[in-house]
Amino acid sequence: MEQHTQHDVVKAERSLEKGQHKDTLMVSASIILGAIIVGVCVLYAGSIVQPLGTTGGQAVNNNNNAAAAPQAGGTASAEETKQILSVKSDDYVWGNPQAPVKLVLFTDLECPFCKRFDATLNTVMDTYGKDGKLAIVYRHFPLTNIHKKALPEAQALECAGKLGGNEAFWKFVSRIFSVTTSNDGLDPKELPNIASFVGLNTKDFNACVANNNFADKIQKQQQDGVKIGVQGTPHSVVVAQNGKTFVINGAQDVTGVTSIIDTALTEK
Question: According to DSSP H, which parts of the chain are helical?
Answer without folding.
Answer: 7-19, 24-44, 78-85, 112-128, 150-179, 190-197, 202-211, 215-227, 254-265
